[in-house]
Write a structure and sequence with these properties.
By secondary structure, the protein is an alpha/beta fold. The protein has two domains: about 140 residues, HAD superfamily/HAD-like (Rossmann fold), CATH 3.40.50; about 70 residues, DNA polymerase, domain 1 (Orthogonal Bundle), CATH 1.10.150. It is about 40% helix and about 10% strand. It contains ten helices and eight strands. It has a six-stranded parallel beta sheet with strand order 5-4-1-6-7-8, with helices on both faces. Helix 1 crosses helix 4, helix 3 crosses helix 4 and helix 5 packs parallel to helix 10. The longest helix has 17 residues. The radius of gyration is 17 Å and the shape is globular.
């Protein structure tokens, strides 16, 4: 396994990877649903729809109450706006980095780092700044930062262009979702899947990541092997 000096860049997903934001996602989503006149959903239900970005999340959560044919575009747009506004007002009520994340980032101080999330850019950057983590990263992309979002590999390529690093297996993309694994493999970088997040282990295995680890504490140990 390559040590940190052999890594040319490391890119990360945000939710379920760097930060446990599960309760904030759930609370802010439920606030948006309440604004639209709907009830609340469990954390498990909300997290089962996380991965493809906020529009997908809103539509899937609305489908818990309405048949898909009855979900209008305006309802999705209004739900998305409410979710974003509530999130900006409640960025880190309960969110925190996972154990080992800060130590891992500190170990990679000489390696270019970036974040690629399917959340809105202002929320991504707001969360990282509020947690005093933004200084680690050369870029922090949300779904509206480029013309592409995961699993499209071009969003990874764009980030690498920004930091002047070519795509190769010496670049790691670390994420907790099958969407992250798909994007990384399509981009030609090493797909590192962490089990600590919101995707069942069996689903991650189906995507055949290059590395599968339980958490960042285990990932830290790999840097020394």
């Amino acid at each position: 396994m390559a040590g940190p000096m052999k890594l040319t860049a490391v890119l990360f997903d945000l939710d379920g990877t760097l930060v446990d934001s599960s309760q904030d996602i759930t609370n802010n989503l439920n606030r948006a649903l309440e604004d639209l006149g709907f009830g609340s959903l469990s954390k498990e239900t909300v997290l089962s729809h996380v991965g493809y970005g906020a529009p997908y999340l809103i539509e899937k959560c609305l489908s818990e109450f309405l048949p898909p044919t009855e979900i209008s575009k305006d309802t999705i747009v209004n739900g998305l706006a409410g979710f974003r506004n509530h999130y900006l007002a409640h960025l880190i009520d309960t969110s925190a980095p996972y154990p080992g994340v800060s130590e891992f980032l500190d170990r990679l101080e000489a390696v270019p780092l970036g974040v690629i999330s399917n959340k809105p850019e202002d929320v991504v950057q707001g969360v990282l700044k509020a947690l005093n983590m933004d200084h680690y990263f050369q870029f922090m992309y949300g779904r509206d930062s480029t013309d592409w979002k995961k699993p499209d590999p071009r969003v990874i390529h764009q980030g690498l262009v920004q930091i002047g690093i070519p795509a190769s297996k010496s670049v790691w993309f670390v994420g907790d979702s099958f969407v992250d694994v798909k994007a990384a493999k399509a981009a030609g970088v090493t797909a590192v899947a962490v089990e600590q997040g919101y995707t069942p282990r069996e689903r991650l295995i189906q995507e055949k990541p290059d590395l599968l680890v339980k958490n960042f504490l285990e990932l830290l140990k790999l840097l020394d092997t």
